[in-house]
Automatic annotation (TrEMBL):
Protein name in the entry: HAUS augmin-like complex subunit 2 isoform X2
Gene assigned in the entry: HAUS2
Signal peptide start and end residues: none
Domain of life: Eukaryota
Species for this entry: Balaenoptera acutorostrata
Family matches, as InterPro entries: HAUS2, HAUS2_metazoa
CC annotations in GO: centrosome; HAUS complex; mitotic spindle microtubule
GO biological process: centrosome cycle; microtubule nucleation; spindle assembly
Length: 188
């Protein structure tokens, strides 16, 4: 009887080993989760760092203050925007007048050429497409030139044939007149 009970303990040993393996796997899984959390924390550390958040908060606060000031001055801003800006003087010291004249000339020139510059900038993305179109047009022109040269050659040949025919007509007519004089009939 005692021998039988000893053998059954080996089953419990296997069960305890299985329990240990399961516990170790759970511990490994737990450690992997902790490692993953540490990696995420490391990746997001610069975003959630207190100094970075303080800087963001300060920026948002300054924007908020500015928007509040704009809302408080909404009526006066609207009146200023509706008021025409013409005939207002800019106080500039006399020393800088010649520079202002030059600057205004440059501004007028720039404004005159602005539309051309904008058109050039708009066409930059289409440059490759335009080059392809030009290449195909050039190829078509080459084909047309070749066909025109062939037609010109055919026209010259036709003219030569017409000259030969027109030079033969008087001789044929002379032969017919000669045959009529001789009363010779030409077989059809």
């Amino acid at each position: 009887m005692l021998n039988i009970s000893k053998k059954s303990t080996s089953c419990f040993v296997n069960f305890s080993r299985l329990q240990q393996i399961t516990d170790i796997q759970a511990e490994i899984y737990q450690k992997n989760l902790e490692i993953e959390l540490l990696r995420l924390e490391k990746d997001a550390a610069d975003v959630v760092h207190p100094s970075f958040l303080a800087q963001k908060c300060h920026t948002l606060q300054s924007m908020n203050n500015h928007l509040e000031a704009v809302l408080k001055e909404k009526r006066s801003l609207r009146q200023r925007l509706l008021k025409p800006m013409c005939q207002e003087n800019l106080p500039i010291e006399a020393v800088y007048h010649r520079y202002m004249v030059h600057l205004l000339e440059l501004a007028v020139t720039f404004i005159e050429r602005l539309e051309d510059h904008l058109e050039i900038i708009r066409n930059i993305p289409h440059l490759d497409e335009n080059l392809k179109k030009m290449s195909t047009a050039l190829a078509e022109m080459d084909i047309l030139v070749a066909e025109t040269a062939e037609l010109a050659e055919n026209i010259l040949k036709w003219r030569e044939q017409q000259k030969e025919i027109s030079s033969c007509i008087p001789r044929i007519l002379a032969e017919e007149n000669f045959l009529h004089k001789c009363d010779v009939t030409v077989p059809p």
